[in-house]
Amino acid sequence: MSDTTEAGLNEEWVRPRPGRTGYRNDLLLALALAIGTTISLVLFRATGTFSDTPGWQSTLWIVAVTMPLALRRRWPEAVAVVSSLAFAAAYVFETGEFLFSQICLFVAIYSVGAWGRNRKVATIVRAVIVSGMLAWVFWQLVYYSAVQDYLPELPREGSLSPYLAYGLINIITNLLYFGGAWFFGDSAYRSARAKALLEQRTVELAAERERTKQQAVALERLRIARELHDVVAHHVSVMGVQAGAARRVLERDPAQASRSLSAIEQNARSAVDELHLLLGTLRSEQPEPGAAPAHQSSSTRGIEQLPELVADAEAAGLPVTLSVIGEARGVPGGVSLSLFRVAQEALTNARKHGGGGARADLRVRYLAEAVELEVSDTGVGASARGGAARATNSASGSGLGHIGMRERVAAVGGRIEIGPRARGGYLVRAQFPIAPALVSTSPINGEPASADND
């Protein structure tokens, strides 16, 4: 997840309400605190504290200070206000007790921080409650400092009198009390938000893994389809041409028919061998250390096999001239395979669409930082077939073969041009980047220059 998404979640996230189990637990908590408050109240009354308060008043106070906590996660702000007023009523109306009522107030203020859906409102409500309580404590300490009958055992004289120390202890205790409720409430909210963020990240990562998996499957299917097209289309096309030739000359020229059948057999064996190699590569789950990637090693074909490709094309009835321009040098396996497959597809198309009497030229040029393949033919394809399908589809590269050529060239960082020539025929020109050739110069003493020389 990006930082922007995370920041957006931090600003907009609202803690979801608990389920029925959460509300049931809150009700049980409120009942438990009500029972504890009742027992504590009885004990306080036994000590003489607020012992004159009517029973019904004490009962109403117990309900007011404890039972709203059953809704502390649904309406935390309202519960905190009610609990605070009930807590103050214990002093104003001289009823209640001072143990469980403080626990109830702590839980109420904590719940505002932990479950408040509007953070600004939660902050304001807590600030008002805490400020009011601290102001009340401070006012009581100041007021009773002048009342000598209140805690007479604590003298008021001196810079740090016992009464002043008592007052400071009360203030520090209340600061820790309210500060703890505030801090732990906010911590619970942050923890819930972090958990939600982690869950969202987990969901997004799972979705991303699924998308990656689907993309990998799609790319693998595309690679398999491209390999099958390149392997099968060429050989089957040659076999179809040779079979037709054998059928036409079978009676009048058995020797030629036999040569055509031999070519069919050779192409069939070649196709089967390449298919076996392709399937073996696809079945290999654990490639050997140092082995080339599957898209580079799925065929033994490469630039060295171009003469064989030319021979197959000529045997199928398409005259081809092979030219190598420049000094030949090593070509990476992936580039070599792609160059061979592009040449194979171009010659197959020339044979299928070029028409009778078509010729093809296959040129390989070694440039400074690239190797260029050019396959042109003199066919009249579209007009000879009585339509413009070839010219239209080929120019845009919409055929499966042309798509495969473009993908192969793009996969190794090259570029390709496909389209009809102005003077007739068709042209496929692809350029593949390779390592630049080292230019050797001879120094004055006649020794060959080293690549390390300056």
TrEMBL record:
Q: Any stretches that span the bilayer, and where are they?
A: 27-48, 99-116, 123-143, 163-185
Any idea where the Histidine kinase/HSP90-like ATPase domain is? 334-436
One GO MF term attached to the UniProt entry: ATP binding
Entry EC number(s): 2.7.13.3
InterPro entries per record = DUF7134, HATPase_C_sf, HATPase_dom, Sensor_HK_TwoCompSys, Sig_transdc_His_kin_sub3_dim/P
Coiled-coil ranges from the UniProt annotation: none
Q: Which GO terms describe its cellular component?
A: membrane
Q: Does the UniProt entry include the keyword Membrane? A: yes
What UniProt keywords apply to this chain's record, in alphabetical order? ATP-binding, Kinase, Membrane, Nucleotide-binding, Phosphoprotein, Transferase, Transmembrane, Transmembrane helix, Two-component regulatory system
EC class, as a word, reads: transferase
| Reaction equations catalysed | ATP + protein L-histidine = ADP + protein N-phospho-L-histidine
Kinase as a keyword of this entry, yes or no, is yes
Stored Gene3D superfamilies: 1.20.5.1930, Histidine kinase-like ATPase, C-terminal domain
- Protein name (record): histidine kinase
Protein's organism: Microterricola viridarii
